[in-house]
């Protein structure tokens, strides 16, 4: 993650993508995915997608690579295990934001 990140950064969210009804539906899908063998296997590996460090399963959270508020969805290709620090620091960044250091 870029060290030049500003704490006052904000995003203009598309109202259609950040609609509370859509986000609620996606969060419900994520809750169902948490019960699958696919997710449990990722947790048992214990690797944070972002920092690569090893953690106990209960120390990892489910993170949407493209945040729900920015149009992401709750599908296997957009969900990864993340340590709490990386998940918190990522905020609403997308992979492009992180590469460009604009986030």
The helix content is 25-40%
Largest sheet: 2 strands, antiparallel
**SS elements, strand count:** 2
Architecture, CATH level 2?
Answer: Orthogonal Bundle
Q: Remind me, CATH topology? A: DNA Binding (I), subunit A
- In round numbers, the mean pLDDT is 87
The topology string of helices and strands comes to HHEEHH
Distance between the termini: 9 Å
Strand content: 5-15%
Main sheet: which strands, in order across? Answer: 1-2
Low-confidence stretches: 1-7
CATH class: Mainly Alpha
Q: Total helix count?
A: 4
Number of domains: 1
> Roughly how many Å is the radius of gyration?
14 Å
- SS-derived structural category: alpha+beta
Shape: flat
Write the layout of secondary structure elements.
Blueprint: H1 20-33, H2 37-45, E1 60-64, E2 79-83, H3 84-90, H4 95-100
Quickly list its features.
two-stranded antiparallel sheet, flat, DNA Binding (I), subunit A, 103 residues, alpha+beta
